[in-house]
Amino acid sequence: MERQELIDLVLANTDGYECYPFNGPNSHEKIKWTVIKHRSNHKIMALIFEIDGQLLIDIKLDPDQVDILRQSETGVYPGYHMNKVHWNTVAVNRTSLTNDEILGLIKESAKLTLK
Questions:
Q1: How far, in Å, CA of 100 to CA of 115, rounded?
Q2: pLDDT digits over 37-55, tens only?
Q3: Structure confidence by residue, pLDDT tens digits, 22-32
Q4: What CATH number should be reported for the domain whose range is 3-112?
Q5: DSSP code at position 79
Q6: Dihedral sign computed on CA atoms, order 54, 18, 61, 78
């Protein structure tokens, strides 16, 4: 999956909008972050980024689900630059998760961040 396909997938299945708050002209950040936020409460539901050519997405999950997912699936890690208890990074093209399973996790993140 390509970066824009992943962005489109998140936007098509949530009430989200994309923004780029970490990529300002004075930013020293080498990573281009696409942040997806809820339209209703403006909370972050997903962060999409690339490191060394790897497409990654940070998503929020229930803490009870986190350990099981990280142990049973490849390409799922503690959240990059996020709270490691709730947030997870999925290496989109290097995970054992299917695209449908990734979509399910995106929807779960949207639900959890809507509160």
A1: 24
A2: 999 999 999 999 999 899 9
A3: 877 776 667 88
A4: 3.90.1150.30
A5: P
A6: positive
Yes or no: say if 38 and 114 are a contact pair by the CB < 8 Å rule.
Answer: yes
Residue spans per domain, the chain: 3-112
Which tokens go with 22?
A: 């970490």
**What is the secondary structure of 25-72 as a DSSP string?**
TT----S--EEEEETTT--EEEEEEEETTEEEEEEE--HHHHHHHHHH
Spatial separation of the C-alpha atoms in residues 82 and 2, rounded to whole Å: 23
Assigned token pair, 70:
């990280």
Whether 70 and 89 have beta carbons less than 8 Å apart is answered as no
Please report the pLDDT score of residue 2 as a whole number.
Answer: 97
